[in-house]
Amino acid sequence: MDPVIPTTIAAVAALAHQTQPLIKEGAKLIDRLLGEPFKIAGEMISDEMYYWRICRAATVGGKAAILLREQNVDPKQLPPGFLLPFIESASTAESADIENLFASLLASAVSDDMFQHPVFRHAISQINADEARILEYLSTGGDIQVYAIVDNKSWCNELYYNEYPGIALDRSVIYTENLRRLRLADASHLRPSVGPRPHFITEEVAKQGEIFVAEIELSAMGKKLGAIAVKASILRNPPKQDAPVAPPFVVQG
Fold this sequence. Notes:
This protein has about 250 residues and is α+β, with helices and mostly antiparallel strands. The protein has 2 domains: about 10-125, no CATH class; about 135-180 and about 185-220, no CATH class. The protein contains 11 helices and 4 strands; from the N terminus they run ααααααααββαβαβα. It has a 4-stranded antiparallel β-sheet with strand order 2-1-4-3, sandwiched between helices. The relative contact order is 0.16.
């Protein structure tokens, strides 16, 4: 007899994760936000990668349910034009921090339809866990500075100094540039640096011109995404979940 293939996200969660209430709750929330069961082709569930993505999306939904309860907000049906692309993006979250950010965006989209705009989903899809924490850091008063060597009012060398703990200087260059590329943050208040030469600027580099300094500040869009990151911080220690395992069924040809 051919095995029964689940055709909804809730059925997948119930069959494959009997002991993971977060995924089950997320599946139920997604169905409620969509207004009907989220249907999945049985053939696709037999694909281990797609199965993993469905479980990831349900986990994001479960975390969003936690945030909605914390905020005393009742779930409501969301437009499929927002929710379906959101599920697709959230299913590829590469870390718990990005899961949390997607969950916070989903909870925010229930409260305020402004957060249903695709720009928020696209931005989260293009940052990593460290960059998410930088957004949170800047949103809570953290300070990140960029130093530049200016010769005759032209930039001849640019260096970054990141005061956010735990991020190496070479990575902060990439992270800050990415946030600037996405127009989530930018350098402002450029001025001559006073005081001792920063330790990461060598004497040889300093001889190229005058040292200037600026602050990295969030844009209007960055502040909104940063607020989402701050709300997501309460999910930093969620209930422990086992990693998704291979689906316990095979589609027969």
